[in-house]
């Protein structure tokens, strides 16, 4: 059975300007150095066919956006049907037809073309030998309405929902409304006494929620605003966080902008513990990423060595998509295993004159009392780490070619996971904070919970963490006054 996944976000017309001779210190602002007006002139007048001008600036145009890279990554990963909720202008990049419309695995039923409205567009400025990149907004594009999201979820029931805005085309209120629809579906099924609940993976890319715009200048929202947005999302998950896997991906700079000036492992941990997300990945480009979850703690995962590095655009989108798809594959295996287990238990009971299997009954009771979704689903530490390695491996193929062209099948991705070369950056290993499991299965569950409590106490001794968490606590108290139905399930430190 194919995985059905839903991407919510806009396609982007990318205008890429590669400044071959431009070298800037990281502290200097590219936008201050080169105004949007100058960038527009460069995009008009400089072309790769102009031998004189191309010595300084090379121009390229491409179809971009998270929905582009995500849906194509899913197409080449295989055994996946991607649905996209979006609005785009009639000036969308000409690559759209070849790259997206031609793929039977990408369903555009829930998309809408707006005539006489410009499509979302960015200037991507590469400098310092393409090691650094900045964005300038050219066209903001169209707002995405909740109606198309509701229609898709009601009719398709996708296995995963990926919220990937790029230019403020929706905010957390669309996410909250969408999660409300998921909850309504489950309530309806309960009334109909249906045993099968609808529990999609919910995934977010922080970048689209963090971005703010001052004309063409792309900036980040203040910390307190982002914290309030994440609290709103947490509140909408209230009651579902123990049954639904949530995955958050943030670049290190983005995570630090929200959680404060910490190392990447601490940023990942704070995002998870303070907002109740199941899995948090803080990425660091070619340096790798940090995974944070209740069954792993904070683990450094290095990148895999590509054959060459040509273009890093879309790596985060490819990483997130491949990680989600591998998680879905893992959940299918777990579901099949549980089904076969239940059948064996039923046969055993029938062979024993329908006597109740006391051990099986105790296991069911224990399962119901577990509040951690990863433990409830019996996902192992090594299995979860491999899911993120699959994401990292998928991204390592993308960088080998320019534009949305370097995607790989799951078979090739897995081969690199098992046999590829890991690019370990030794200085990140000091931030590892793994949870070590010992003993039997029941003891393992208890140790995980106790370890989380120990980690919480240790964080209280860290002044920076406490300062950040105090800000979060203030927002929580304000939200409690505004919405009495909010019941906090997180120990805000």
SSE arrangement:
Blueprint: E1 3-8, E2 12-19, H1 30-33, H2 36-45, E3 57-64, H3 66-77, E4 80-89, H4 95-101, E5 106-107, E6 111-114, E7 121-127, E8 132-139, H5 146-156, E9 160-163, H6 172-191, E10 201-205, H7 206-210, E11 211-214, E12 217-220, H8 223-237, E13 246-251, H9 252-259, H10 264-275, E14 279-283, E15 289-293, E16 297-301, E17 303-304, H11 315-351, H12 358-369, H13 373-376, H14 381-398, H15 410-419, E18 422-423, E19 433-434, H16 441-460, H17 463-482
Parallel strand pairs: 1-4, 1-9, 2-7, 4-5, 4-6, 9-10, 10-13, 13-14
Antiparallel strand pairs: 2-3, 7-8, 11-12, 14-15, 15-16, 16-19, 17-18
Helix pairs in contact: 3-11, 5-6, 6-8, 8-17, 9-10, 11-14, 14-15
Description:
- Helix 5 (146-156) runs parallel beside helix 6, helix 6 packs parallel to helix 8 and helix 14 packs across helix 15 (410-419).
- It is built from 17 helices and 19 strands.
- Strands 1, 4, 5, 6, 9, 10, 13, 14, 15, 16 and 19 form an eleven-stranded mixed sheet that branches. The chain has a four-stranded mixed sheet with strand order 3-2-7-8.
- It has 493 residues and is of the alpha/beta class.
- Strand 14 (279-283) and strand 15 form a beta hairpin.
């Amino acid at each position: 059975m194919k995985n059905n996944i839903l991407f919510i976000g806009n396609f982007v017309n990318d205008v890429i300007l590669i400044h071959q001779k431009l070298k800037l210190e990281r502290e200097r602002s590219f936008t201050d150095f080169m105004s949007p007006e100058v960038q527009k002139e460069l995009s008009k007048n400089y072309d790769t066919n102009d031998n004189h001008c191309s010595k300084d600036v090379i121009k390229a145009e491409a179809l971009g956006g998270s929905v582009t890279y995500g849906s194509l990554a899913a197409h080449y990963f295989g055994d996946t049907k991607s649905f996209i909720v979006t609005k785009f202008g009639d000036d969308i990049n000409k690559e759209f037809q070849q790259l997206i419309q031609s793929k039977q695995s990408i369903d555009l039923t829930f998309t809408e073309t707006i005539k006489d409205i410009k499509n979302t567009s960015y200037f991507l400025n590469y400098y310092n030998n393409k090691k650094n990149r900045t964005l300038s907004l050219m066209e903001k594009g169209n707002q995405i309405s909740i109606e198309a999201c509701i229609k898709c979820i009601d009719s398709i029931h996708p296995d995963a929902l990926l919220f990937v805005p790029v230019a403020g085309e929706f905010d957390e209120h669309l996410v909250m409304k969408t999660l409300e629809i998921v909850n309504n579906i489950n309530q309806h099924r309960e009334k109909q006494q249906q045993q099968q609940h609808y529990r999609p993976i919910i995934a977010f890319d922080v970048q689209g929620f963090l971005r703010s715009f001052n004309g063409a200048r792309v900036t980040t929202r203040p910390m307190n605003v982002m914290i309030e947005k994440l609290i709103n999302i947490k509140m909408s998950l209230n009651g579902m966080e123990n049954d639904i896997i949530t995955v958050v991906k943030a670049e290190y700079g983005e995570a630090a902008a929200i959680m404060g000036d910490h190392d990447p492992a601490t940023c990942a941990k704070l995002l998870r513990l303070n907002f109740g997300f199941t899995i948090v990945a803080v990425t660091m480009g070619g340096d790798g990423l940090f995974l944070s979850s209740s069954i792993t703690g904070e683990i450094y995962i290095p990148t895999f060595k590509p054959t060459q590095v040509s273009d890093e655009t879309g790596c985060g989108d490819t990483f997130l998509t491949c990680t989600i798809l591998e998680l879905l594959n893992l959940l299918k295996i777990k579901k099949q295993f549980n089904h076969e287990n239940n059948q064996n238990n039923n046969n055993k009971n029938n062979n024993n004159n329908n006597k109740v299997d006391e051990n099986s009954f105790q296991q069911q009771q224990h399962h119901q009392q577990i509040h951690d979704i990863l433990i409830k689903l019996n996902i192992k530490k090594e299995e979860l780490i491999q899911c993120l390695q699959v994401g990292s491996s998928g991204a390592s193929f993308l960088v080998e070619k320019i534009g949305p062209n370097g995607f790989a099948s799951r078979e090739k991705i897995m081969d690199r996971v098992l046999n590829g070369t890991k690019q370990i950056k030794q200085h990140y290993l000091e931030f590892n904070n793994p949870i070590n499991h010992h003993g039997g299965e029941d003891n393992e569950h208890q140790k995980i919970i106790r370890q989380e409590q120990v980690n919480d106490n240790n964080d209280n001794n860290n002044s920076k963490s406490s300062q950040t968490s105090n800000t979060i606590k203030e927002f929580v108290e304000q939200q409690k006054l505004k919405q009495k139905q909010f019941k906090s399930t997180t120990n805000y430190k």
